[in-house]
């Protein structure tokens, strides 16, 4: 995980130095990913309950 986070950090930092808008886009993408992960977790829990 550390290597992935380090790569993301550098990919985010360099463009931010060029354009502040990139940071806002990155935060928006992170929020979107978190939302999708939450939905997937809910679906998995619902499916698990259905199997019982």
Task: Give your account of this protein's structure.
This protein has 52 residues and is mainly α. The protein has 2 helices and no strands. Helix 1 (2-18) runs antiparallel to helix 2. The chain starts with a helix and ends with a helix. The mean pLDDT is 75. The chain crosses the membrane at residues 12-34. Keywords: Membrane, Transmembrane, Transmembrane helix.
Structural key phrases:
2 helices; 52 residues; mainly alpha; elongated
What distance lies between the first and last C-alpha atoms, to the nearest angstrom?
Answer: 34 Å
Q: Portion of residues in helices? A: over 70%
Calculate the mean pLDDT score and round it. Answer: 75
Give the overall shape, derived from the CA principal axes. elongated
Instruction: Give start-end ranges of low-pLDDT stretches.
Output: none
Strand content: under 5%
The biggest sheet amounts to:
none
Sheet/helix structural class: mainly alpha
N to C succession of SSEs: HH
Cα radius of gyration in angstroms: 16 Å
β-strand number: 0
Counting DSSP H or I runs of 4 or more residues, the number of helices is: 2
Keywords: Membrane, Transmembrane, Transmembrane helix
Transmembrane segments: 12-34
